[in-house]
Every structure is written in structure tokens, then in C-alpha cells.
Amino acid sequence: MYRSHHCGQLRSKNIGERVVLSGWMATKRDFGGMTFIDLRDRYGITQLIFNMETDEALCLAARQLHREDVIQIHGDVRERSNKNPDIPTGDVEVVVSEINVLSRSKLPPFTIENDTDGGDELRMKYRYLDLRRPVLQEQIQFRSKLTLAIRKYMDQQQFLEIETPVLIKSTPEGARDFVVPSRLNPGQFYALPQSPQTFKQLFMVAGMDRYFQIVKCFRDEDLRADRQPEFTQVDCEMAFVHQEDVLQTFEGLTRFVFREMLSAELPEFQRITYDDAIRLYGSDKPDTRFDMQIIDFTDPVKGHGFKVFDQAEFIGGLLLEGKADEYSNKNMKEITTWVQRPQVGAKGLVYAQWKNDDTIKSSVGKFYPDDVIKSWFEAAGGQKGDILFLMSGEDALTRTQIGTLRLELGRRHELISPTAFKPLWVVDFPLLEWDEETQRFYAMHHPFTAPKTEDIEKMNSDDRKVLESIRADAYDLVINGAEIGGGSIRIYDRALQEKNFALLQFTPEEAESQFGFLMSAFEYGAPPHGGIAFGLDRLCAVMKGKTSIRDFIAFPKNNMGRDIMIDAPAKIDEEQLKDLSLRVVKKS
Amino acid sequence: MYRSHHCGQLRSKNIGERVVLSGWMATKRDFGGMTFIDLRDRYGITQLIFNMETDEALCLAARQLHREDVIQIHGDVRERSNKNPDIPTGDVEVVVSEINVLSRSKLPPFTIENDTDGGDELRMKYRYLDLRRPVLQEQIQFRSKLTLAIRKYMDQQQFLEIETPVLIKSTPEGARDFVVPSRLNPGQFYALPQSPQTFKQLFMVAGMDRYFQIVKCFRDEDLRADRQPEFTQVDCEMAFVHQEDVLQTFEGLTRFVFREMLSAELPEFQRITYDDAIRLYGSDKPDTRFDMQIIDFTDPVKGHGFKVFDQAEFIGGLLLEGKADEYSNKNMKEITTWVQRPQVGAKGLVYAQWKNDDTIKSSVGKFYPDDVIKSWFEAAGGQKGDILFLMSGEDALTRTQIGTLRLELGRRHELISPTAFKPLWVVDFPLLEWDEETQRFYAMHHPFTAPKTEDIEKMNSDDRKVLESIRADAYDLVINGAEIGGGSIRIYDRALQEKNFALLQFTPEEAESQFGFLMSAFEYGAPPHGGIAFGLDRLCAVMKGKTSIRDFIAFPKNNMGRDIMIDAPAKIDEEQLKDLSLRVVKKS
């Protein structure tokens, strides 16, 4: 037996007991004739004590130990004279009578503490040491407990967890698939699922009624920061539901896990249409922890000879309250430069300050008299002491840029409570999204999303504007400006599904060869159904107030999709390639 | 709202309520002026009733419905005159006032009942209809509930569920890997994990203490019946444990899930060494639901001029009690032919019958007098009325063949209680397994398995017999003759791991390039650790008394690794291949 207790377990009631503990040597202090060791495991820390006077050999052995050595000790629990109220075992210590060194540690390549001196690459390479840091232990445990809480709720709601295959079929729609060559079927490939979408719909056709799965999904994308080629979804589907049933069920799930994990009671789940989200926040995932909305200045500011505005499709503004006197010329120049960064991409920024001394200062002061500018403030609900920022240009692009500035102002001026959670349903997404480059429609959510019943007729139009105006029963759950989940009510009628594929430029043959099994399933009694998928990694990050998902993943990959620790991907044997009927060719 | 209740919900207390139900039309009966419909969903069946006299139009509409049509009805719950005690809703029926047809069904390609007329291929193609059959609904639900029960126990035991990566690195050891070409790293490949072995060991080094995961694993094998290229493991690892700790913990898990799922109290978990299992049962996964053991006749039968026995390395027998008079010459010929089938591969079968009239009948009667044969029976604990079957040849092979005959005798003579569960730990597996073909050792379990402490010294030998005699702390959990799980205590010392790799014919460079990260981890304070992995599909099958795992998997693949429904694997676009720097070549 390696231990009688773990390192977070001993309390006053154990005083006088003989115990065996095992763990890592976290810290060591020599103090007079005594040596103190903090022995650490996942559960906590216990103080060990050695005495030169009573057992010199043992105390000397303890002094030989290095950080991260793994030891087993035998000893007696006694009351601690110098109690430590910060840790649960702080009332006791263990007087050691025997040490067994189980495993020695070399000097770790970085310090194993929350504030480590290790850089990203080094910590990825020694991820097993990085994972010993308390903050990562905490986050990995959080994720484990969160999945338990999710499963508890889903079971209460009669969802079955059913596994779907990982080796499936490649489809051209959506992101790029990872593929897996089949040895038994030479020249043919499986694909790894981007989501179990068609399978979960088939579960509904199969009468499973309520399905969920916490499941790995895969996307072979050019990796941006904080994207992983493999990620985990909480994937859900329900039969005999309208959109409202889905929203209620998953509002319930969200409330449940925030309560179980954080003892947090979420406020009302507000709802906003996609159109309003874009119009008011310049984003389909608005951060509603602060109120600032985009104000439409297109009409008010035109016709004063300022060409940039006069020629703009859209002019929008943000009202920053109470900061007029804080912004110097230098500040204004700096924030103008900020919006001109490639990541934001604005051409420029117009400002107007209504200073507390009642003067107006504006970058467009020569075109607009003070009283006109004051009328802008009034229209925006502003007053003396406020600033207006204005941007102009093509409608959609400008709103996005203003939305980005809005978030930056929120951060800079600490308008966002760090402890608030603001859940929001974004609803009524468009069914189709026009792509200028390829001059065709793509599915905004995915090709299985149902249009709103009242918009089905519009699918017969060949007018692009009409088609763009089709709304879908599609919805996203956004919390604090992060997209946590998204889903839709699905098509369950073969003819409607064929119609939708046609709008998405599938030939009937392509539709049949790729999704024939699904359309065929719709002919054998398919119930109305819909669902949602949550990004588990993102949900963890939002709940714990982190911006990166990486530290909720035990072994993440870097931005080139590499696992630095195991050095993957890697070359494989010629023999393996031959078995797979494959040859590697140089890129032309 | 599609429904106020599901189809398994209504009871006497609902009589008089107005309800909305949705589901599939399972059966329809016209009876006098009435029509009865069984409406089905996952939760049950509710009887609907229509009356030609009170609403002719509605009743006619009902009579138009086809099997598997999806409908929504409004109606009133009333007491049923002709109660059906076999179903929970059997006390009530619903008088329908409105039908909405949600989705029509064509005639299904096979009957959707437990005893279906659909063949394997057809049911695989229409798996979404196959899954509507009650027996499959039941098995898929069982699996879902079983995973919940497993997670409940593991949480109680402080195991964390942590996900490991699916895109890892190919290693030549063990079965063939599925590989995934990396587009961002041309010419390089990920591999899909055969198990998360190294990652779970790294979790122990990382101080996670207790890890588990219900996880998909992958093996690119030539598929035998009832093997799947992707399968699910309950994968577990614990730090600071000896073998006994692991066995206790997972005996606990097994008892827990049998109790929760089947209300079954398992008998004592017997233990047998690998050597004894082979010696007594000719199998490393003996079915101990019946006692019949292999009896060693090597010495007693030699020297009577029967050349086959005189030249054999080993002669073993089975005692079949009380059946001597049942076996005719024809029966004996039949069972002899049976053991000569290629699947068993025996050269022949010797028998001796001690008939109830005290005569002896034996295929080797001319070499052995009756009293000698009677002495065999006595040595075997047999008596008048029994049969002895004897087989001879090379030791290991013969024991395996006798073991196969043993199982067949158990089946034929119904020696196995169909409701019994007999758990058994097989322990003390050899560390190494000699392969005649390649003239080298392979790891019996895997290369990370620890030899027993007292056998470590033997690893320095270059005598094959000495090396073969090394025992490992490796164990299998066998229930009713099926291997449910297997595991081992692991090496956690770099030098010992290097030694083991060397015995397995890894060059130091190969060991370093493939498993350097793990050996490096052992240098930074690795705790002693060990674990186990359970086959979830197999566990389901054994618990439900089934021999095939396939119907516990929602979308299984056939023996060529194909998903017939979605038609995968399949060819991919030239463009995709080019992006991956690959070309398909003809097999030479």
C-alpha cells in the first residue's frame, strides 16, 4: 500500500494516527535543526517535519531531496504549532519516521507554479510538467466536473448519449475534412466528422427522441490563434420540437451547469434577432455586458460638405459617456491608429467631444457647427462630458468595424463587469449567405437547417435579394460575447431538402451521392426535429473567465496543428504508404 | 407544441384530460365501426380510438394512415374497456378529435419488429429503420445508461475524466494504425490512437492521480466477425497503486454496474494465473460457468503401443459426466469431425465410454485393456456412465484445442446456466511472447507493462527460456469466457523502460524517436502507476447475454470496414488529394 491517506486529507481528528503518504516534494525549508517539506498531490499539500536532533540520518536524507522527487513516507500526525489557515490540512503536520524515494526528478525545465518562467513552446513540449501547475490542474478538473454536470442534466431530461462513428464520409460542404485512407478499400478514404450532424438527425428518424453526445469533432482549417484541429462538442438533437422547445431546454442546461459549477444564477436569457445584433452591435455575438449600441447617423450628418460622409453608404456612431475631458489629441490619434490596424481595417475615425466646459472639439469641426454636433449628442441620448465616435463606409463592413471599436472601448474603460454573465439568444439567422467571390449562396448554418415556414415560398424566387431575406429557425447562444452554441430546426421533408440543396448549387446527383441516405430516411416517417451543439472548450473558458481554450485541453496542438510533445504529425514508413496504395508527391 | 405527453406516459389519473400526442403509427385495426391505432414513440405505446359513427371523416382519415407514418393527434383520455395489463398505458385510450399527418412513410423495406424479415445488409443500409426495432432501442438505451453508471462510480472514486487527443503519432508496435495525412505538414501523418496508453501514463506523471475516459480507439485490422475498426474503451489509470489496488477498484466498478443495471449481485471474483488458465482450460479467458477442466493424461497413457499417444508431447482429456449411454457411434463420428474443422484444427479425437452396463467402449480399445481405461476414469474422478475425450499433440496447441472442445461440450450439453455471471481475474501474464515466424519477442500486453519485481533480474538473461518465464503484473478481467478488460502495472523508470524496449528489438534510436517523450517524463518524478481498459461494447454484450457487439453500436461497419448506409469509405476529389500532397497508386 503506497498510502493510507492522500495529501489533502489529514485533519485535527487524525492527530495521533500513524499514516503513510505519497506525493511530490513541492518545497523544502531548513529552519534551525528542523526540515519542513510540503508534500503535494492532486488533493492538496501536507507538511512533513524532520528533526536533526531526534533522527539525524533521516533529516539529512530529507535534505538531500529535490523539488518534484516522488517519495513515500511513514509518520505520525500531530498538531501543528504554527497553524496555516490557508490550507485544509493546515492544522496538522506529519512527523516522519521513514522515507522511501519512489522516483527522482531532474531539475524541471521551468518552475511548476502558476506564474511559471516557461515559455509556450517549452511548456507544450513538457506538457506533463505544465499540467502539474495548480491553475491547469484546476481547469482540467473543472472540465471533468462540467461534463458530469452536463450528463446529469441531460439524463434528467431523458436524453440518451449515443456514440456516432468517427470514420465517416467526406463531403465537400463546409470546412475541409481530415481524411483517413482505407487499406481494405484501396484508393478510398474515410473522413473524420466535422460534427455528427446527419447521424443525429437519423437518430430522430430512428425514434431515439432525445440524443446527445460529448464528442470530438475535426476541422482541417488553417489554424488561427485559439483554434484546434480537434475540438469537443456537446451535440444534441430532439424530436417533435419547435425552436421554442429547444431554447427552453438548453437555457435549462445552461442555468443548471452555472448553478452546479459556479453557484451562479444567470439573469434572463435575452433574445435578439440576427439583424438587430448586426445593426446594434455590429456582431452576431454581441457582448451585452455593457449597453453601448451603434447609433445610425447616416441621415443626420449628410449634406454638410464633408465628402467622406456624403459618399458613405452608412455612418454609425458610438456614444462614450463621461470621458470627453479624458481624451487628449494624443489619445485621439492613438485610438484612430488602433481602428486603422489591419485587424480592424477602418479607414479612419471621426470624433466629437462635448467637453465639460461646454465647448465642442471635433475632427470634423470645420464642416459642422457646434450646435449641429450638439444635436447629434442629443439624438444619441448624450450630454456634456461625452464623446461621439463615428465611422463610415459600406454598411455591413462599417458596422463590424464599429462593433470592434465598441468592444475595445468597453475594455479600455472597464465598462464590463469581470464577474457578470450575460446570456443571449441570437435568433432568426438568414438561411443563406451570399459569397461574392464564388458568386453563389452558402448555408449560413448548414444545409439541413429549416427555413421559417412563412419564408418557404421565397425559396422559389430567383431574385438574390428575396433569397437573402429568407429567415431560418436557427439560433446561437452567446454568453459575454462568445458563441457558446448554435443550432437550428431541421428540414425533415425530402422535397424541401432537395430544394435547399439546389439553392446551394448541389446538382441532384451530388445531393443524392452525398446525402441520399438522409433524404431517403425522410421518406420513412421522419419526425420534426431540431438541435444544438455547444463548444465544450469555449464553454469552459467563458465560465472560468478565460479568453483561451487551450488550457482546458490536456494536450492541445500548436498553430501548425502540431503536438510538440509527441512530435506529431510525422513521416510514416514506406511500407505503410504502400499498404495504403498511396505515394507522397511534392506540391506543384 | 407537438405533444403534451409522450406515448408511454398516460395512466388512469389522466382520464378526462385533453392531450396532444405525436409518434409513429405502429399498428392499426378496424373493428366494427371503430378503428384502433397503436401510436409509438421511444417511451411506449398509446392506443388511439376513432369511431365511424361519431366522426366519419376523421375515422376515414385514420384508415388512410400507413405503418410508420408520423402523426400528431389531439384527443381525450378515457378509461379503456378492454384493459391491456402488458403495457404501462394499458388502462387508458385516447379518443381522437384531430389528426395532423407530420410525415408520411413509404412501405419500409423490412418489418420493424424484433423478429424482422430483413437480412443483415438490408438492415445495415436502412440502419435508421433497424434502430426502430424494440430490441435495438433497448440495447442502445442500455449502453447509454451503462456509461452513466460507469461515470457515477468513477466520480465517487475520484477519477477525473480527461480527453486525450485523437490525432496522434503512428508507432510500429502492435496492430496497424489508421493514419491521417496532414495538409499543413505535407508528407506527414497523424495516427488515430489504438488506445490512449502513453497519454494516460503522462497524466499520472502530471499528478492527475486517477484518470478515466470513455473513448474511441481504432485498429486497422483485417476484420474478423464481430471486430470493428473503431471501438470504445473505458480507459483507466491510477497512481500510487500496486496490482491489488487496481483489481479491488475495478472489481468494485464491475459489481457496481451489474447492481445498477441488472440488479445482479456478482459472486466472488476468482483468480487464476495465466499458466493455470492455459493448463486447466486451454484458454486465457476461461468460461468458469461450468467446472470441466483439462486432465493431464500424458504419463498414464504412454507405453501401450498406441503410437499417436506415445509420440505426443502432451495428452489431455475432458470428463463428460453421465452421458456415456447417450453417445452413439454416429455421435462420436460427428464430434470427431467437429474437432477436425479448420477452426479447431485437431488431428483426431480419442474417446472412452464407461457405459452404465459397466462395459467400456473406446476408439483405442485395442491398445488399452478395460481396467486400464477404467483407471483413467478413476484418476479423472469419473465413474460409470461418463465419457472421456482425449486429444494429443504439441502441448500449447493441444490445450487450446481441448479448450475449444470443452466450450462446445458445455454448449451442447447445456452445462452453462444462461443467467449466471462468473467473473474471473486472470493474473501473472508473461511479460514477453515469442514469435516463431519473426524469431523475436513481442510484448504480451504492451511495452509499458512492468515485470514483477522479483523477475526484473531475469531481463538481463539472453536465454529464451528464462526470458519467457518473466511474469508481469498484468491482468485480464474475464466474465463468462469473454475478455472484458485488461491492464497492468506500468514501468515508471527510464532505465527499465529502455531495457524492455531493447528486449522488444527496439534500437535505442527507435525507442527515443517513438517514446522519448514518455521516457523523458519518467525523469521528472513519475509515480508508480497502473491501470486497465474495459471494452465497452463487449461489456454491454456480456451483461445482456448477447454474443455479438454489433447491435450495441448505433452505426457499425461491416466486415470490410464499410458503412453501407453512408457508403464510406469513398473516393475523394483530386483537389483534396493534391492539397494533401498525395497520389493514389495501384498496388503492385
Give a brief outline of the structure:
Two copies of one chain form a homodimer. Chain A is 29% helix and 24% strand.
Instruction: Please give the CATH class of the largest domain in chain A.
Output: Alpha Beta
The structural class of chain A is alpha+beta
Oligomer: homodimer
Indicate the overall shape of chain A: globular
Poorly predicted ranges of chain A? none
CATH third-tier fold name of the largest domain in chain A:
BirA Bifunctional Protein, domain 2
Largest interface: A-B, 127 and 127 residues
Q: What does the main sheet of chain A amount to?
A: 8 strands, mixed
**Arithmetic mean pLDDT of chain A:** 95
What is the number of E strands of chain A? 23
Task: Record keyword descriptors for this entry.
Gyrase A, domain 2; five-stranded mixed barrel; alpha+beta; OB fold (Dihydrolipoamide Acetyltransferase, E2P); 4 domains; homodimer; eight-stranded mixed sheet; 588 residues; globular; 23 strands; BirA Bifunctional Protein, domain 2
How would you sum up this structure, described in words?
Two copies of one chain form a homodimer. Chain A is α+β, with helices and mostly antiparallel strands. The first copy, chain A, folds into four domains: 12-103, OB fold (Dihydrolipoamide Acetyltransferase, E2P) (Beta Barrel), CATH 2.40.50.140; 135-269 and 533-557, Bira Bifunctional Protein, Domain 2 (BirA Bifunctional Protein, domain 2), CATH 3.30.930; 290-412, Gyrase A, domain 2 (2-Layer Sandwich); 423-529, no CATH class. Helix content of chain A is 29%, strand content 24%. The first copy, chain A, contains 17 helices and 23 strands. In chain A, strands 6-9-10-22-21-20-17-11 form an eight-stranded mixed sheet, sandwiched between helices. In chain A, strand 14 (350-354) and strand 15 (360-362) form a beta hairpin. In chain A, helix 4 (134-156) packs across helix 6 and helix 14 (494-503) runs antiparallel to helix 15. Chain A is globular, with a radius of gyration of 30 Å. The model of chain A has no long low-confidence stretch (mean pLDDT 95). Chains A, B: Its EC number is 6.1.1.12. Chains A, B: Catalyzes the attachment of L-aspartate to tRNA(Asp) in a two-step reaction: L-aspartate is first activated by ATP to form Asp-AMP and then transferred to the acceptor end of tRNA(Asp). Chains A, B: Belongs to the class-II aminoacyl-tRNA synthetase family. Type 1 subfamily.
